[in-house]
Amino acid sequence: MARRSSITSATSAFTRAYQRNLRALTKAALKATLTNGKRVTGQVQRAAATQLKPPPGKGDWLAGMALGPGGARRYHLFRPSDLALAPGEKLPLIVMLHGCGQTGRDFAAITRMNALATRHRFLVLYPEQDRLHHPQGCWNWYDTRSGKSAAEAATLMAAVDQVCVLYAVDRDRVAVAGLSAGAGMAALLATHYPARFRAVVMHSGVAPGAARSSATALGAMRGRHVPPMPVTAVGKAMGAAAAMTSLPPLLVLHGDRDVVVSSSNAGSAAAVWAAATGAVPVASRSLQRGRRHPMRVTDFKVRGKTSVTLCEIAGLGHAWSGGAARMAFSDPAGPDATRMAWAFAAKQFAAA
User: Fold this and answer.
1) Which of 102, 166, 216, 260 could form a disulfide linkage to 98, CB 3.0–4.6 angstroms apart?
2) Predicted structure pTM score
3) Domain range holding 205?
4) Number of domains composing the chain
C-alpha cells in the first residue's frame, strides 16, 4: 500500500508540474502571438499609410475607383495645384500604367511625371492593379484567348471615362504610357481603343500580340514569339483596311541589358506597329546627353509622318530610364524617359 501511495503521489506531482509548464507555455505563446500580431498589423498600417500618402511634389492626389467587366480598380489622379483654368479650358491627360510589383504611387515617384504635369499643365492618371486579380500586381496584357485581358482593358477605359467626366480633361488629348506589364497593357488599350489615344509609350514591354495566354507570356517576354500585326481587335470594329491607319503613334523605349523582358521585343513592337500603319524605317541616329546612357533612335514614317519611334538604350536594364535614384525598377543614368514620353505625346497633341 505504501508503494502504491508513493507512486500516486509522484504521478500527481508530475501532472501538476506538467500543467504548470503547459500554462506557462500557453501564456508565452499567446503573448508572442499578440506581439507578432501587433507588429504585423503595424507594418500593414504603415504600408497602407505610405500608399495613401501623396508622392513628392505639389498638387492634388485624388483617389477614385472604376468598375468594369474586369471588376473594380483603384486609381489616383494627379492634378497640379493653382491651375487657374480659363472658362471652358480642358487639359491633356497622360495615363500611366505601372509595372509588376509596383503601385501607382511607386510609378509616380519613379517617373516624376507629376513635376512635368505641373510645369506643362496636364493631368496624370495612375490606375492600380488589384492584388486579388494578380498577386504580383501585373496588368493582364497577355490573356487575350480567354478574354480576361480585354475585360481588364475595358475596366481601365472605364477609369479614363470617369476621369474625363469628373475633371476638365480634353478627350482629344489623351495618351497612355506604361512600364513592363504596363507597357503591354498600354499597347493593348491602343489596339482596342485606337480612337481614344493620341500617343502610346511602351517602356520595356512585350510586343503586341506576342502572347495569347499565361502559358505563352513567359516565352513572349524572352522574345520567343513573333507577333502578328495588331489589327485584329481594331479590325473587328472597323475592318482591317481602316485599322491600317487608325493606330496612334508609338514610342518604344528598351534597354539592351534587360534580363526580364528581352530587348528583341522592342524591335518586334516597332515592326508590328509600323506594318499595321504602313510605315517604313528611316536612317537610325545615335544620341547621348552628357554621361547618360547612349541610345539608337529609329523613326518609322508614313507619308512624312512618324508612326513609330524606337529608342534602344545601351546599358539599361529592366528599369525606367532616367528615373528617380535609389528606387526599384529605376535607372537615373539613362536618358530621361519621362521627358521623352511627354515630348512625344505633346507633339501628337499639337498635330491633332
Assistant:
1) 102
2) 0.83
3) 59-81+89-351
4) 1
